[in-house]
Amino acid sequence: MVHQGEVEGSVKLAFQELVSLLERIFVTYGVSPANAKILAENCAACERDGSLSHGMFRIPGYVSSLQSGWVNGAALPVVEDTGGAFIRVDAKNGFAQPALIAARAMLVERARQYGIGLLALRRSHHFSALWPDVEPFADEGLVALSFVNSMACVVPHGGHKAVFGTNPIAFAAPRRDEPPFVFDQASSAIANGDVQIAAREGRMLEPGMGVDRDGHPTRDPKAVLDGGALLPFGGHKGNSIALMVEILGAALTGGFFSGEFDWSEFKGAQTPKTGQLFIVIDPERGGNGVFRDRVSEISALVRESGQDRLPGDRRMQMRARSTAEGIVLSQANHDMLQSYV
Ligand code: NDP
Ligand code: PYC
Question: Are the C-beta atoms of 213 and 228 separated by less than 8 Å?
Answer without folding.
Answer: yes
